[in-house]
Amino acid sequence: MKPLQVLGKYELLQKIGAGGMAEVYKARLTGIEGFEKIVVVKKILPGYARNVSFIKMLVDEAKLTSVLQHPNVVQIFELDHIDNQYYIAMELVDGKDLLKILARLAEDKAEPNQTMSCFFAAEVCKGLDYAHRARDIYGNTLNIIHRDVSPSNIIVSWGGSVKIMDFGVAKARTQDTKGSKHVLRGKLGYMSPEQVKGEEIDHRSDIFSLGIVLFESLTLKRLFLGRSDLETLINIRDASIERKFEKYPFIGEELRTILRKALAADREQRYGTAMEFHEDLVEYLYELKVRVNNAQVEDYMKSVFGEEAQNSALIKETTEELVDTELTNDIARRPSTSPGVPKSAVEEARRMEEMVGQGRAAVAPKPHPPQEETAQAETVTPLTSGSAGSDDFGEYASPKFGEEHSPVSESLKGHEFKLRNTSGYVFGPVDFDNLVNLLQTGAVSEEEFVSVDGGDWQRVREITGVRKFSPNEALKSKGVTPIYSGTISRTGMVRVFYQVSSRSLSGKLRFTMSSAQKEFYFRNGKPRHIASNLKQELLGSFLLHRQVVTEEQMEEALSRAGEFGGRLGDALVSMGFVKPHELYWLLDQQFREKFLQVFSWTQGRYEFYEGVPCPIDMAPSDANVFRYVLEGVRKFSTAADLEKLFKQHEGSTVKEKRNEYVSIQSLPLNSKEQRLFAQVQRAGSFGKVLRECSTDELKASLYHTLLVLYQLELIEFQPR
Q1: How far apart are CA 469 and CA 435, in angstroms?
Q2: Among the listed ranges 412-416, 582-586, 702-706, which one has the minimum average pLDDT value?
Q3: Scanning 252, 265, 409, 535, which has the fewest C-beta atoms within 10 Å of its C-beta?
Q4: Cis omega (within 30 of 0) for bond into 620
Q5: 241 by DSSP, 3-state: which?
């Protein structure tokens, strides 16, 4: 085969992949007397090659891990550079990575082979244990941790061997230029609890990650990957797997015991070494009277891949290990940004992905007149997932949005739509599927404007073929009416949330003010998701406003978000701009601010529709509606707002009321509020306490406390 390029002593024969960090080639190393060896050469992209800190880390790690020589580890031969072109040469394993194996099983609707799943994990344990215990030539422990154990980094050869790969770049690519030690390659679904919490990690983090891989190999379902980055991080932090076992009775108690130990949230309760994990898996297979050898694995690969396993001499398609991409919830192939698409188009597409409401993020477009030409947005394929609140995070082979979730109007399909809100923000064009998705997730309201194929601007609700897909229109067509509704007022907002929370209702609480729309989804009285069409509340805008990242970093993350299924959080973590535990906190803060902002609304309407399912779980696990309500009142209700409301009660006696749903003691009142209410109880009337308040700040705190307690039916005013 004629080489495409010569790179030092390597002839690059065939480009087999390209990713965010490198281009990957099948290459030939030649020597005297016709010596020839086929290897993989990974060319580091120029952007990384110019990053001195990255190259230094890459070199340091390659020095350490190039000494690894083990049957279950893909060997790195060298890291070198020619004319400032850095490259890594590594062993070529002729086979399939575990990701491709699981994807094929899901595609074929085949049952996972429990024996092979356990054998693969046991073999990886041997490679990990060897690396964890590796020493240099002087006998010093190298303290190697893989940090990226996932299906795409485990390869099974056609001949039956199982190897763990990418030791040589795992650490270098997870560190940012500031020297962070805790950033993972964006695969949030394979992190350990200690990584989520920002703690130092050791080799037991790899054991936890391999436990995840084993579980997913047995079930073909993602274990911890949620429908948002925040949900994923919470799932990993809690590491609760018992409910998962209930869904998979075919996982016997002996195997469950092994998984429990590998996946213990407390690493002190985990396997102490990868070899201990290996021994339990081998013992489990022994008890089943099963012994696996290379020939059996070879037969298994043939059964999964058919003629491809028998005829393929080399891997022709790109593997995730080679191209350094991300395993997402949906393993089905997705459309990616085409070569030649302008950068602005990429950014616009990423923005739209946030508005799809699937845990994706973007920066609000800058306002400009409707006549201006706006960026072309590519088709966005959202992640698919199970119903809200379920433990089903999607199969490896999942249907695309348009195939299962959205009927397409043939009369509108093929047309282009631009969208504009009342503030003048224009984005698009988008296709019909995207428009429907934006409408269904609340990212676009019926009161906003749409232009079809460059035509006149019309309100969304005026276009019949589009309006019928609105969730609110669907509710109307089914004759569903709100069980609560009314006019928004700043002093009455507490009661609106109390009505839902106190009765442990599930459904959608919708607020509208002109074209602005917020939809709060509740499950058993607890807030689980907030859909908003306010573009400044997108994650990208939120991070920029808080100066967490720079505009340049955000642009770079947006341009690469496609590698992570459009999940901006994954991209930011991967590139070292945000640490995993910081992302958890930031998403929590974003949810909080979206909640509080509705307390600034002074007009409009609210409606609560019972039984409407939550489209995605984005809330922190400990979301407390009363904490948010108190904060909203403190932030947006002034003493002047409340003075008129309570003027008539200044001489009244304040009495506590018994409430079976909530108590004063359970409310997160601050010390000042607790002290003021205690004074009111001693004085009998709050008018006396009000007159003793020396500052407007104290008066406001007193009013805030009384408003919340009164609206929550915890106090009443009795005339003297």
Answers
A1: 9
A2: 412-416
A3: 252
A4: no
A5: coil
Residue 298 CA from chain centroid, whole number: 36
**148 in active site:** yes
Are the C-beta atoms of residues 525 and 502 closer than 8 Å to each other?
yes
User: Can you tell me whether residue 380 is helix, strand or coil?
Assistant: coil
In degrees, to the nearest 5, what angle opens at C-alpha 603 toward C-alphas 598 and 608? 65
pLDDT tens sequence across 128-147? 999 999 887 788 888 889 98
DSSP assignments along 356-405, one per residue: TTSS----PPPP--TTS--PPPPP--PPP--STT-S---BSS---HHHHT
Task: Tell me the pTM.
Answer: 0.56
Q: Report whether CATH 3.30.200.20 matches the domain 5-91.
A: yes
Helix (H) or strand (E) holding 409: none
In which region does residue 629 sit, left (phi positive, over 0), alpha (psi from -120 to 50) or beta (all else)? alpha
d(CA 680, CA 688): 8
Contact 610, 481 (CB under 8 A): no
* 665 neighbors 678 (Cβ within 8 angstroms): no
- Dihedrals phi, psi of 223, to nearest 5 degrees: -85, -55
CA distance 576 to 558: 14
> What is d(CA 149, CA 321) in angstroms, rounded to the nearest whole number?
11
What's the token pair of residue 673? 């509020």
- The alpha carbons of the chain give a radius of gyration, in whole angstroms, of 29
Q: What was the pLDDT predicted at 172?
A: 42
Q: List, in sequence order, every residue forming a beta bridge with 26; answer none if it has no partner.
A: 14, 40
What is the tens place of the pLDDT at every residue in 307-333?
A: 776 665 444 343 333 333 333 333 333
Catalytic position from the list 97, 129, 148, 166: 148
Residue spans per domain, the chain? 5-91, 95-323, 343-610, 638-718
What does residue 487 show for φ and ψ, rounded to 5 degrees? -95, 140
H/E stretch holding 653: strand 653-656
Distance CA 185, CA 572 (A): 10
Check residue 338 and report its DSSP letter: P
Q: What is the pLDDT of residue 437?
A: 65
Query: Would you say 231 and 214 are in contact if contact means Cβ atoms under 8 Å apart?
Result: no
d(CA 537, CA 355) in angstroms, rounded, equals 10
- The identity of residue 598, as a single letter, is V
Range scoring the smallest mean pLDDT among 20-24, 122-126, 288-292, 474-478: 474-478
Nearest Cα residue to 446 out of 428, 425, 423, 468 = 468
At 489, is the secondary structure helix, strand, or coil?
coil
Q: Phi and psi for 168 in degrees, rounded to 5? A: -70, -20
Tokens of 483: 């069980």
Q: Which two tokens stand for residue 28?
A: 């030939």
* Cβ 192 vs Cβ 236: under 8 Å: yes
Predicted confidence band of residue 73 (pLDDT cuts 50, 70, 90): very high
The kind and range of the H/E element at 479 are none
Torsion angle (degrees, nearest 10) of CA 192, 353, 103, 335: -140
Nearest to 575 by CA among 177, 197, 193, 234: 177
Q: What integer pLDDT is reported at residue 640 of this predicted model?
A: 82
